[in-house]
From TrEMBL:
One of the GO BP terms on file: gamma-aminobutyric acid catabolic process
Keyword annotations: Oxidoreductase
Family affiliation: Belongs to the aldehyde dehydrogenase family.
Active-site residues from the entry: E259
TM region positions: none
Keyword RNA-binding in annotation: no
Gene source species: Halomonas ventosae
Coiled-coil ranges from the UniProt annotation: none
Protein name: Succinate semialdehyde dehydrogenase
Matches recorded under Pfam families: Aldedh (PF00171)
CDD domains: ALDH_F5_SSADH_GabD
C-alpha cells in the first residue's frame, strides 16, 4: 500500500519543494529518502535544491512581499482563515502524514494538527491589531507617533519533533504581519510542511508568500543567513545549531528569534500527594516519547515523599504502551532515528556508571530498532549527562532534595532556561520558587502550558524572543517612528 493511498486526499503528499507557487524539483539530482521511524520503510523522497534555487525562492519572496504587504490586514486575515479552515478540513490526513514521518501516536498527531491550526487562526486575528501609538509631543507644532511595518522576508527553520505546529507558529505570525516566508523544514519530516504549502495554495495565499525549500541543511541555512534581502530568521531546534545560525546572521544584522533546547526541572513540594504528582510527572516526561523541548528532564522530589513518588511513577510508567503510532492504543511511538536511541542508551549508561539506580526500563522489550522503552532512574546527580543534556528520549531521572533553597539551586543548575514545572499547593512556596526559577515559562500544578495566547520562549541558552501570544507578531514587525513637524499650532502638542 503506497503512502498516498492512506490519505483521503492523495494530493496532500508532495515530493517536491514549493517555490513561488510552483512544485519544484532539484536541478542537481540530489535527493533524500523520508523514512517511517516506526518501520524503517521508505515513505518517499524529497529533492535537495541547488544554491541558485534557494536564491530563486528569495527572489520570489521579494516580489511577493510588495503585493502581500500592500493588502489590508483584514484581507490577509481572510486568506489565513481560509488556510485555517482547510487545515481543519484535512486534519485526519495531516495527522496520518505526521504519524508516518514523525512516529508520534495518531491521537498526539491529531492534537498537534489542532494546535498548529490554532496559531493560524490566532495570528489571522492578531494581524488586525498591529497598532502603532500616538506620542504626546515635546516638539512645538509637531505630531509624533509610530506605525508598525512588516520587517520583510522571513526565513523559518524548523525541527522534526513538531513538524507542523513549529511552522505555523512562525509562519502565521509572519504572514499576518505582511511578511512572506521561506520555510526550511527538517529533512526527517518534510511532508507536513509540504502539505501546509498545498493547503496554503488552495486557500489563495499568493505565489511567493509561503515557500518551502528543501536541501542540505547547512548549505540552505548559510544561503538564507547570508542573504541581505532576508530580514528575519526564526529558528526552532537545538542550541548547538541555534548558536551557529546566530553567528551566520551577524553580517546581515538580521532579526533573529531562537527557540532552542530545554532541560525542564519538575519540582514536587513536600505537601503534594505523591500519586497525583507522579502521574503529572509521567505526563510531562513522556509526551512525544520524551522528544519534546518541554519534557520534564530532571524530576526533583522532596525527600519526605520521594519513595512513595517513585513507586507511583514506576507504576504509571509501567502502564505506558510502546509501538507503531498508527496501530492501536499507543502512548509512545519510536524515536526519530537510530542515533537518538544510541544517545538515550549512552545517557542511561553514563548515569548508572556514576551511581544512579535503574528502577525500570528493559530495552529487550523494544518493539523495533528505533524504539526505546521508558526508563526510570533515581539518585540522579549533577555530574551525570542526564542532568545537563536533553535526553530527547523517554528517560526519567529523579532526585531527592531537602528544602526550597536547595531545589531552586538544583533547578537552575543548567545552561537551559525554557520551561519548568512546580507542583505544590503552598502559596508562599509557589511565589518564592516561581520568582527564583531562571526559566522563560513556569507551569504551576499543570502539565499543559502552551497554546496560541501564550508567550512561548526561553531564557539563557534556550533562546531569544517569544512566539505566540500578543507579542509573537512583533518578531516580524518594525516600529517606524514619525515626527510630523511644522504643523502650525497643534492642539495638545
Ligand atoms: N524551544 C522550542 O520551542 C523547541 C521546540 C521544538 C524543538 N526544540 C529543540 O529542537 C531540538 C530537536 O530538534 P532537531 O534535532 O530537529 O534540532 P536540530 O537543531 O538538529 O535541527 C533543527 C533544524 O535545523 C536544521 N539543521 C541541522 N543542522 C544544521 C546546520 N548545521 N546548519 C543549519 N541548519 C541545520 C535541521 O535540518 C532542522 O531543520 C531539541 O533541542 C529541542 O529542544 C525546541
Ligand atoms: N511542545 C513544544 C514543542 C517543543 O518541542 C511546543 O508546544 O511548542
Amino acid at each position: 500500500m503506497t503512502l498516498s493511498s492512506k490519505l483521503s486526499d492523495p494530493l496532500l503528499l508532495r515530493q517536491y519543494a514549493y517555490v513561488d507557487g510552483k512544485w519544484t524539483h532539484g536541478e542537481g539530482g540530489r535527493e533524500e529518502a523520508v523514512l517511517n521511524p516506526a518501520t524503517g520503510e521508505t515513505l518517499g523522497h524529497i529533492p535537495w535544491l541547488e544554491p541558485h534555487q534557494i536564491t530563486a525562492a528569495v527572489d520570489a519572496a521579494e516580489v511577493a512581499f510588495r503585493r502581500w504587504r500592500a493588502l489590508r490586514a483584514d484581507e490577509r486575515c481572510e486568506r489565513l482563515l481560509a488556510w485555517y479552515d482547510l487545515l481543519q478540513a484535512h486534519r485526519e490526513d495531516l495527522a496520518i502524514l505526521m504519524t508516518l514521518e514523525q512516529g508520534k501516536p495518531l491521537p498526539d498527531a491529531r492534537g498537534e494538527v489542532e494546535y498548529g491550526a490554532s496559531f493560524v487562526r490566532w495570528f489571522a486575528e492578531e494581524g488586525k491589531r498591529t497598532f502603532g501609538e500616538t506620542i504626546p509631543s515635546h516638539i512645538p507644532n509637531a505630531a509624533l507617533g509610530t506605525i508598525k511595518e512588516p520587517v520583510g522576508i522571513a526565513a523559518l527553520i524548523t525541527p522534526w519533533n513538531f513538524p507542523l505546529a513549529m511552522i505555523t507558529r512562525k509562519a502565521a505570525a509572519a504572514m499576518a504581519a505582511g511578511c512572506p516566508v521561506i520555510v526550511k523544514p527538517a529533512g526527517e519530516t518534510p511532508f507536513s510542511a509540504l502539505a501546509l504549502a498545498e493547503l496554503a495554495e488552495r486557500a489563495g495565499i499568493p505565489a511567493g508568500v509561503f515557500n518551502v525549500v528543501l536541501g542540505e541543511p547547512a548549505e540552505v541555512s548559510k544561503i538564507l543567513c547570508a542573504e541581505d534581502r532576508v530580514k528575519a530568521l526564526s529558528f526552532t531546534g537545538s542550541t548547538r545549531v541555534g548558536r551557529l545560525l546566530l553567528e551566520q546572521c551577524a553580517n546581515t544584522v538580521k532579526r533573529v528569534s531562537l527557540e532552542l533546547g530545554g532541560n525542564a526541572p519538575f519540582i514536587v513540594g513536600p505537601d503534594m500527594n505523591p500519586k497525583e504528582a507522579a502521574f503529572a510527572a509521567v505526563a510531562a516526561k513522556f509526551q512525544t516519547a520524551g522528544q519534546d523541548c518541554l519534557a520534564a528532564d530532571r524530576i526533583l522530589v522532596h525527600e519526605s515523599i520521594h519513595d512513595a513518588f517513585v513507586e507511583h511513577f514506576a507504576e504509571r510508567m509501567a502502564a505506558l504502551t510502546v509501538g507503531n503510532g498508527l496501530e492501536g492504543e499507543i502512548d509512545l511511538g519510536p524515536l526519530i532515528h537510530r542515533q537518538a536511541v544510541e544517545k538515550a542508551a549512552a545517557i542511561v549508561d553514563d548515569a548508572i556508571s556514576k551511581g544512579a539506580t535503574l528502577v525500570a526500563g528493559d530495552q529487550s522489550q523494544a518493539p523495533g530498532e528505533n524504539f526505546f522503552m521508558p526508563v526510570l532512574l533515581t539518585g540522579v546527580t549533577h555530574d551525570m549527562k542526564i542532568w545537563h543534556e536533553e535526553s530527547f528520549a523517554p528517560v526519567a531521572g529523579i532526585t531527592a532534595y531537602a528544602d526550597d533553597d536547595q531545589v531552586i539551586e538544583m533547578a537552575n543548575d543548567t545552561e537551559y532556561g525554557l520551561a519548568a514545572y512546580l507542583y505544590t499547593h503552598d502559596i508562599r512556596r509557589i511565589w518564592k520558587v516561581l520568582r527564583a526559577l531562571e526559566f522563560g515559562m513556569v507551569a504551576v500544578n499543570s502539565v499543559k502550558m502552551t497554546g496560541p495566547p501564550v508567550p512561548f520562549g526561553g531564557v539563557k541558552h534556550s533562546g531569544l524572543g517569544r512566539e505566540g501570544g500578543v507579542t509573537g507578531i512583533d518578531e516580524y514587525l518594525e516600529t517606524k517612528y514619525y515626527c510630523l513637524g511644522a504643523l502650525g499650532s497643534v492642539s495638545g502638542s
